[in-house]
Structure formats: C-alpha cells, structure tokens
C-alpha cells in the first residue's frame, strides 16, 4: 500500500478532476489524502477520501469564496495577474507548512496538479516521487504551441513561432513573482533552481485528461506524457438538487461560466437575451449560491448550481467559458459549444474548440447579443459541429480514463522508472 498525497488548487474544477483518480487508487488498496484549504473539505469528504487542511489559520473557511468573488469580476491579463498573486501567496504557505504535515502523515508519493507549481519542489524536499496531472490545459511549453492564455490558432510557421515566443515572454513577466519564489525556496532547501518551466513536471509520469485529438500537434512532450482522457464521475461529487420537472422538452441549451469567472452580470444577460427569441430552453447555471445576478428572460431556467454531468445528456448546445472540464464533459456527450473565454487557460481551450470544429468562439471582450445569437444559430444549424463533437466523443471513448491513469501511477511509483507512453 502507498499513501498518496493529492495536491491541487482549492477550486471545484481542479478538485473534481483529481478526486476520481484518488478514489480509484483507494479502491486498489492505497491510502489517499487530499491537501487543500478548508473550503475543499466537503468535496473531499463527499468522495470518501482523507482531508488535510493547508494553513487553516491563514486560509479559514470562506477564503476561497472571497478570492473567487474578486477574480470573478476580472478578465484577461488582470485576472491572470491577480491569480498569479494568489497562487504565489498560497505557494509560500505551502512551502512553510506542508512538508512537515506530509512527514507527519507518512506520505509516500504525490500526485500534483500542474497548476500547483510548488508540488515538485515539495516532493524533492521530502525525497518522495511525484506524478504530474493536468486538470487544466496542458501547460508544458512548446515553441509551436501558443501560450495557454491566448486564443491564438495553431500556426507552426516561422511567424507563428515568433508570435508564440513573444507570448511566452509576456507570460513570464506575469508569473515572475511565482517563479522567483519557487527558485528561492529551492535554493534554501539545497535544490537546483529550475531553468525552465517544463522542469517542474514529473520525470516519472505526466498525465493529461485531454484526449490527444483535442490538443494542438506537439513535438516536444516527454516520452512519459500520457493522454488518458477525462475522469468524469458523478459519484465523487456532491448531489445537486435540480427542478427537472421544469424542463419543457424543447432543445436544451446549457450555459455555465464556471465557478471562478462567474460574476459578470453583462455576460449572463447577453446569454439570456441571445436565447430569448430562439425555440429553445436555456438552463443557466450561475456557479455561485451567493450570486446577486438577476435574469428574468422568459425561457431561462436559472439555478445557482446544476448537475452538469446529468444535464449534458439532454443538451443540444453548451455555452461555456471554455473551462476544460465543462468542455470535455460536453464532448463526452457529443455536445457542440459556443465558447466565451474570459481568463487563464480558457482562451487556450477555446482555441482548441475552434480548431477541432466542435464550436464557435466569442472572446468576452467582443460579446454582444447579436454576435452570440448568430453563433448559437450557426452551431445548432450546421451539422459539422455536431459531427465533429461526435468524432471527439469517439476519441474520448477510446481513452483509458481513470483506470489507465491509476495503472500509470502505480507503475511509476512501484518501479521508480519513467512510464513511457505507447
């Protein structure tokens, strides 16, 4: 038996990506402890895994909601900059407290979300192995791949590579405080500073919940990188009540802007107005039980949260912020999309939606009711979007999912050697 520690940001998208893997490892006889701030405790308990609070005095219950409320009103570079600041602060707290807690609990190995940039350094400090997991877009850098925070298309030409390099320079500028903190801590712990971002990720195995077909063509992923497909599992999520009796049987449009960038009243208004005159029913999930957003459109069923996995089985079109989880969950049901990317990796996910032909993209800065309505009608009317979503659904069905990921994790930890992709 191995005692695994799971480390990821305390947001539902990241947590719900990792919990099924933790649950699968638990079923195989391993012990699994999730390291999150107190706001993640209920989600972990609902999945039946062990929970350990990160710096509970610094991050009391409710801290995440306050941070998300602030970020939820931001967009673009401002949202990225504030996110980096929050991640830098939490990384400092992790470095200060978590190594001691992991020693006390007897953690043997870590599974680290790529966004939790401290994880690899903590594992090295403790001299334990770790596995990297991409719950968001693949963050490994490649000169042919645009930075994750852009809607840039895939362009492997000389001009495209130069464009990407300039984008990465901007990203390095935005993330400099975090990068400097990590290397400073590595020096204090006697570890070699990172020379590039890709060195943060595991030398044993790196796992992405994307299917390879939903990623731009890459040339420099390590041989131990695996596209396993997503781990969607409603049994690891809290039960969400929903008024199914209010569904009319009309074509269903499901709209969600996630649980982070979800405070933009104008965006919700635009979605509701764009659907108002269409022969559809709109289910609009606010992603927030405390939201004061008011929607009065006649054919909109507005809820604080929705049972997303269940609703998508009935959905004709998803309007999404292009969070990776909602995107993959839609594609798993062959549901095409209209993406409204707001910040962080959402622009990059939306670029892949456009590239794969599974939907249309309207950046938040260009969101207007006529433009959105036109995009909705286009995706609903042209069969190619549905056909491409079906193609992606088949690709997802061929992936190994959570069982494949658990096999990779177990092999990497038991052998101490890189697990090569086939």
UniProtKB/TrEMBL annotation:
Keyword Transferase: yes
Coiled-coil portions: none
InterPro entries assigned to the protein according to its UniProt record, in alphabetical order: Glycosyltransferase_28 (IPR050426), UDP_glucos_trans (IPR002213)
Keywords: Transferase
GO molecular function, one term: UDP-glycosyltransferase activity
Biological processes, Gene Ontology terms: antibiotic biosynthetic process
PANTHER family (alphabetical): STEROL 3-BETA-GLUCOSYLTRANSFERASE, STEROL 3-BETA-GLUCOSYLTRANSFERASE UGT80A2
Record protein name field: Glycosyl transferase family 1
